[in-house]
TrEMBL record:
Domain CBS positions: 13-71, 72-130
Tagged with keyword rRNA processing: no
Superkingdom of origin organism: Archaea
Record-linked PANTHER family: CBS DOMAIN-CONTAINING PROTEIN, CBS DOMAIN-CONTAINING PROTEIN CBSX3, MITOCHONDRIAL
Keywords, comma-separated and alphabetical: CBS domain
SMART domains (alphabetical): CBS, ParB
Key word Secreted present: no
Protein name: CBS domain-containing protein
InterPro entries, sorted: CBS_dom (IPR000644), CBS_dom_sf (IPR046342), Diverse_CBS-Domain (IPR051257), ParB/Sulfiredoxin_sf (IPR036086), ParB_N (IPR003115), UCP004699_CBS/ParB (IPR016427)
């Protein structure tokens, strides 16, 4: 994959790109945008070659019969698969656009990278650090060794270790999951017992959306130990995700603190 500290556009771009052609009319493209929640514009292609980009704003200023080659912006910004995601993020931020077409050396469209993809790249880089620290802590406390695994886990196999989640934060996790932005779970595999160490709001959101499996970083303990978080789960009668209570009468403490500071101003 290359240098993990320098993720590339090619690693995070969407390869299946919706496009329009040079002769498509304003009316046809506007209908596609109106009928979908996913698109606010399209790359305009001639075969595989990118010739321009058309946005919803471009369509508003044109007559229904106008073809894309008359309406599109042909002075467009594009990225290359080998470009660093961080550099693509700067372009997206400074230009005010939401998506960058990605082209190869021949100018052929090979993908598209969005601000959501950029966010995902930062999430996935942050999580391994969290997993590494937790793994080293478990090794030091219990005098054992462990190794990390990155895999899909079945949510019904997980034992939660947190009794409650906050309703307002849960809504945020639902929003992220629907857009593919949620970071992987952190799970401890203790001789086959899968303890959920991080991601309780995410699994509750997944349950609401009918998702049965999620991406997870798994810390596999090389020998079974008695974990305090497992004892806490047992004492709290936590056996499955349904046992996690959603607290809908209060906000997350950090949100409360921020709101209180605003009220005091």
């Amino acid at each position: 994959m290359g240098d993990p500290s320098r993720p590339t556009v090619g690693e995070y771009m969407t390869r299946d790109v919706a496009t329009v052609e040079l002769d498509d009319t304003v009316a046809e493209v506007a209908k596609r945008i109106a009928e979908s929640d996913d698109f606010s514009g399209f790359p305009v292609t001639d075969g595989r070659r990118v010739e321009g980009f058309v946005s919803a704003r471009d369509l508003l200023l044109a007559a229904d019969h106008e073809p894309m080659f008359r309406v599109m912006s042909d002075d467009i910004l594009v990225a290359h698969p080998d470009m660093a995601v961080q550099d693509a993020a700067r372009v997206i931020l400074r230009s005010g656009i939401q998506k960058l077409p990605v082209v190869d050396d021949a100018g052929h469209l090979v993908g598209i990278i969005s601000n959501a993809d950029v966010i995902r790249s930062h999430i996935e880089r942050a999580t391994p650090d969290k997993v590494d620290k937790l793994g080293r802590t478990l090794e030091n406390i219990h005098d054992i060794t462990s190794h990390e695994d990155h895999r899909q886990v079945t949510l019904s196999d997980l034992t939660p270790t947190q009794t409650t989640v906050y309703a307002d934060e849960l809504e945020g996790r639902v929003y992220e999951l629907e857009r593919g932005l949620a970071e992987p779970l952190v799970v401890i595999d203790n001789d086959g017992d899968l303890l959920l160490a991080d991601g309780h709001h995410r699994v509750k959101a997944a349950a609401r959306l009918g998702i049965e499996e999620m991406d997870a970083y798994v810390i596999v303990l090389d020998e079974p130990v008695e974990l305090g978080m497992a004892e806490t789960a047992a004492d709290s009668d936590l056996e499955r995700i349904d046992d996690i209570e959603v607290v809908d009468y209060g906000r997350h403490p950090l949100v409360e603190t921020t709101q209180r500071l605003q009220d005091e101003e």
